Amino acid sequence: MDILSSKVEGAFVVMPNGRLDTNNAPQAEKLLVENISAGEKRVIFDFSKTDYISSAGLRVILQAAKLVRKDGRVVLCNANEQIYEVLEISGFLDMINYCSDLKGAMQSVSE
Amino acid sequence: MDIRKILDVVLPPFREPRREKPRDMIYIAQETPGLYTTFTAGVTLAISALMLVPEPGVGVTEDLKPVLMSPLMMGGFAAIGLNMLFRIGISEQAEIELSGAYAAQQATRFLEDQGANWGARRDVITRAGAAVGEALEALQSADMVRGPVTLRASFDEYQLTLVLDYPGSAFALQAKKKLDLSALLDEEGDDALGAAMSKMSSHLIRHLADTVKSSERADRAELVMQFSH
């Protein structure tokens, strides 16, 4: 399974396993659209098991942020150095909250 | 026996971490740029200094005295010898043919293996892997590649150069400017999102690599990315 997910204290936590790129971005997008449509409005991307993210992966995050923009929130956490750098230079950290761990992300997404 | 591995054991106490960042900050072999250069220069100076000791050439034939009694000559020989030993300034090269849906993973593994062999810094290899992965993904999704892609890597202690050589058309590099994505969140539909994300690959590659060049000749194209080391 490339994309792991779980529900933790009212938040939908998505945990890409290995890489989030063009090969598994459609799977991640489908998972998110289904769950957001079903009422999940607080979404956390936990990158603790993710080694690499490409622009296709960034698109998935942006799509989720767009879907919950009116009544929800997306928070990112646990990025390794490479992913953090990609999030930074792509401008994602300017518009989406980032926390260094899941605990902080849980608090941030509930605010 | 690999001299660099011996030095990795001997020299770590003298190393300093470059900077604190999120997890996975591990170097493949060499942490401090120019470590071997510094070592070579130090040993050279030490040998030169030794030659200043009175009467080091006792028992040496008259023919060899001008050489062995000269600190400058001995220092020069030591520098040449040690440079040959540690291969300082010598560019290492390797290449791999990539194809299929998992070309980016192939490239990443190739760079990690070669980086370990060459003693490249892990942060540079990771950034290079991200840039190559992004480029391959962008080229394949835009149907700009019409066959296998060859990744050529060359490395010396100052620079890592990667060349993606492939049959097809040149990668379209956008001007280096910050993307404003926040407005996209309020846009209806996915057209604006798709258009913005199509520029993202070029944006990422330009920021991950220190220099990027894209060119096309006949039916082949090249994307050259250079990373300071």
Order of neighbouring strands in the sheet with most strands of chain A: 1-2-4-6-7
- The proportion of residues forming helix of chain A, as a percent range, comes to 40-55%
The average pLDDT of chain A is: 94
The gyration radius over C-alpha positions of chain A equals 12 Å
The number of domains of chain A is 1
| CATH superfamily membership of chain A | STAS domain
**Radius of gyration of chain B, in angstroms, nearest whole number:** 24 Å
Any idea what the shape of chain A is? Answer: globular
**Proportion of β residues of chain B?**
15-25%
Overall, the morphology of chain B is: elongated
Helix content of chain B: 40-55%
How many strands, what sense, and barrel or not for the largest sheet of chain A?
Answer: 5 strands, mixed
Question: Can you lay out the helices and strands and say which pair or pack?
Answer:
The complex is a heterodimer of chains A (111) and B (229).
Chain A: E1 3-8, E2 11-16, E3 18-20, H1 25-37, E4 42-46, E5 50-53, H2 55-67, E6 73-77, H3 81-89, H4 92-95, E7 97-99, H5 102-110
Parallel strand pairs in A: 2-4, 3-5, 4-6, 6-7
Antiparallel strand pairs in A: 1-2
Helix pairs in contact in A: 1-2
Chain B: H1 3-10, H2 35-50, H3 65-68, H4 71-86, E1 92-98, H5 103-118, H6 122-141, E2 149-155, E3 159-167, H7 191-208, E4 211-217, E5 220-228
Antiparallel strand pairs in B: 1-2, 2-3, 3-5, 4-5
